[in-house]
Amino acid sequence: MQIVISQLDLQTRLFKNATTGYSEADASTTSGEANHVKWLTGHVVSTRYMMANVVGITEQEPYPDLFAQGKGRQPDAEYPAMTDLVKDWDGISQKLIDRLNQMSDEDFNAAPPFPLPMGDGTLKGFVGFLSHHEAYTIGQIAYARRIFGMESMKYN
Prior knowledge:
The chain is mainly alpha-helical. Helices cover 60% and strands 0% of the residues. The chain has one domain (2-147): dinb family like domain (Four Helix Bundle (Hemerythrin (Met), subunit A), Up-down Bundle), CATH 1.20.120.450. The chain is built from eight helices and no strands. It is globular, with a radius of gyration of 16 Å.
């Protein structure tokens, strides 16, 4: 699990690097059925809260009506400002990483709360899949930076 925890730690920084600098107009822009940056951002934060809840951290995500349980983009919804979407990121991320570092092999080998498309039927596989999913979505946010004429996301 240490490699997954290291990935989540890296993704904590990359998420901030990817989401920084968007104008509210660009972050709300979409084409057809594509997700806009605000939705992608909120989805990553929501997923991080879900991971935290699954490993025993009982904190409510900030915008469950918009993002909870993998809710898709709602065309008529008013999404919060980017600064509001990301404001709790550091806090929940630190709590999640601290908790994962405290967990035992026995904890990680427990059954997950629900199945995911990939995994070994353990909480370890569940967290591993969600880490992959998070990285994938952060990549979409980072890619959109170039679409809007911004600098590429930085790894530092």
